[in-house]
Amino acid sequence: MKSEHILQYLINNINEGIHIVDNKGKTIYYNCAMEKIEGLKKEEVLGKKVYEYLKAMENGSTLMKALKEKKEYKDVLQNYFNKEGRKITSINTTVPVIANDKVIAAIEIAKDMTQIKSLNEKLCDLEKNNKKAKRNHYEFKDIIGDNLILKNEVNKSLRASLSSSSVLIYGETGTGKEVFAQSIHYGGARKDKPFIPINCAAIPSALLEAMLFGTVKGSFTGAENKKGLFEEANGGTILLDEVNSMEPYLQSKLLRVLQDGYIRPIGSNKIVDIDVRIIATLNEEPEKLIDSGKLRKDFYYRLSVIRINIPPLRERKEDIEKIAIYFLDYYNNILNKNIKLIDEKVIEDFLNYEWHGNIRELKNVIEAAMNMIDEGEILSKEYFENKAIFNNKSEKLCFWEGNISISDYLDNLEKEIIERILSKNGRNITRTAKELKISRQNLQYKLKKYSIN
């Protein structure tokens, strides 16, 4: 009885919707997350079949299909409407429960994609209307630095802008991969055509496939006749950010697009010729991704016709002061201030710091300090919240010397690591938790434990 109570508590407190029907298709379980996704109360659905409370779902429901066909459906994209007429987009995995060769129930696990889909569509609309809106974009002049390796990569990118070949940009988080990508697009013949960036890590592959290739009515539940981003970007460029986040099947499908120059919308028998340049980015070494199976080798070779390797900031320390001064001037304009210098001792500490978050981390550090200073003309150490920059010990795992308990030593070490990674990620909780490989809830507990703001 106790284990059943624990399981019930767990299911009701996870983010995914859980919907269970019996062998007749009647709902026997419907958790809190499912209530939020579909805008219904469990009292309205228990004991009823799906099509009794959701519009046009008699033939399209994967729950009904799983019961009828004894078949598992994994990561299926569905569009449908609730009783209020609100459109819902979800990605569902549905499995039949079979005992003695008979289907006794079906379980559906649903991820709500409604807001993600809507936000991505709005973002893509903004990008497509970039020219009309006269939105600022990056160009080669925005790439700051005198480092020879960086200059070589910039020169390679300049030559890449004159062709239509695929480009793969590798660089650690925060090195400026999109700055390079935009510079290549806006520095070439496609500059007057759309530039559409897509964060592959933020969009599940099933939804991303529909967004890229487009759909025809009836191709899946609730599908509409809708052009994909390849058609919308025709003549322009699509940036696939963190392309290794795509499922292998989608990498294979994109490989065919790169080779053949046409697409087939989901559910369609017709092909559509396209002229779209692909620029892709990776924040992990391609060779390691291939070895681990996260990146198809054939897809990598087709993407990396031209490969750009952006050096991390720690390998171009001669550029740190110049970049810091650029951000000082930038935030002077944004914040209406008149700070003229960064203290020499601060610059010296900057040069000794590893900058795991690269240029993005440096930018965040300068922005935070600029918000703290009210008077004076020099940005000195006192205005910087990230004290790890000025304490080289935080950059190394020091040996325990026995002057404090091992427990306190480990707590101090954990606190320093959290502060460093938090600063690197612009104090973004989700990204920091992901890098530390812990849950958001666990990270929030530790932030409170160590009084980290």
Helix content: 40-55%
Distance between the termini: 42 Å
Which CATH architecture of the largest domain would you pick?
3-Layer(aba) Sandwich
At the fourth level of CATH, the homologous superfamily of the largest domain is P-loop containing nucleotide triphosphate hydrolases
Taking pLDDT < 50 over at least 5 consecutive residues as the criterion, the unreliable ranges are 393-397
Count of separate DSSP helical elements: 20
Pfam family, one: AAA_lid_14
InterPro entries: AAA+_ATPase (IPR003593), AAA_lid_NorR (IPR058031), Homeodomain-like_sf (IPR009057), HTH_Fis (IPR002197), P-loop_NTPase (IPR027417), PAS (IPR000014), PAS-like_dom_sf (IPR035965), PAS_4 (IPR013656)
Keywords: ATP-binding, Nucleotide-binding, Transcription, Transcription regulation
GO molecular function: ATP binding; sequence-specific DNA binding
In short:
The protein folds into 4 domains: 110 residues, 2-Layer Sandwich (Beta-Lactamase), CATH 3.30.450.20; 197 residues, 3-Layer(aba) Sandwich (Rossmann fold); 68 residues, Helicase, Ruva Protein, domain 3; 57 residues, Homeodomain-like (Arc Repressor Mutant, subunit A), CATH 1.10.10.60. 43% of the residues lie in helices and 17% in strands. The chain contains 20 helices and 14 strands.
Q: Can you walk through the features of this model?
A:
Keywords: ATP-binding, Nucleotide-binding, Transcription, Transcription regulation. The strands form four sheets. This protein has a five-stranded antiparallel beta sheet, with helices on both faces. Helix content is 43%, strand content 17%. The two termini are 42 Å apart. It is an alpha/beta fold and 453 residues long. The protein has four domains: 2-111, PAS domain (Beta-Lactamase, 2-Layer Sandwich); 115-311, Rossmann fold, CATH 3.40.50; 317-350 and 357-390, Helicase, Ruva Protein, domain 3 (Orthogonal Bundle); 397-453, Homeodomain-like (Arc Repressor Mutant, subunit A, Orthogonal Bundle). The chain has helices at residues 2-12, 32-38, 42-45, 50-53, 62-69, 114-128, 130-133, 148-160, 177-186, 205-213, 229-232, 248-260, 286-292, 297-303, 320-335, 344-352, 358-372, 406-424, 429-436, 440-449; strands spanning 17-22, 27-30, 73-81, 87-99, 102-112, 167-170, 195-199, 237-241, 262-263, 272-273, 277-282, 306-309, 341-342, 378-379.
